[in-house]
Design a protein that fits this description.
Strand content: under 5%
Number of helices: 5
Number of domains: 1
Order of helices and strands: HHHHH
Distance between the termini: 37 Å
Oligomer: single chain
Shape: elongated
Structural class: mainly alpha
Number of strands: 0
């Protein structure tokens, strides 16, 4: 299972979520850079670069969810998340 292998390599859900948010910022940066670096090609090429990088975010969010699910069943959730859950259950 890919998620188990990623977890064993030290990749956690927080890493995937961070990568997802970073790719959103990178999408805007790639769009702006393409727009400025290649003014003769127009908006279409900049849009394609932005869309290409923008497709990474859902993948990283999905990996984050899969890793989070694995961590919940593996018992390796961070203490802060476990404490929040216990606090919610306590009322």
């Amino acid at each position: 299972m890919m998620v188990k292998k990623m977890h064993e390599m030290g990749i956690r859900s927080e890493h995937a979520y961070t990568a997802a948010f970073a790719s959103i910022g990178l999408t805007v940066a790639a769009w702006m850079a393409s727009l400025q670096a290649e003014p003769g090609t127009g908006l279409a090429r900049a849009d394609r670069w932005g869309i290409f990088v923008g497709e990474w975010a859902p993948t990283f969010f999905g990996l984050g969810l899969a890793l989070s699910h694995y961590e919940q069943h593996d018992g390796t959730l961070t203490a802060s998340v476990q404490e929040i859950r216990q606090h919610r259950e306590a009322g």
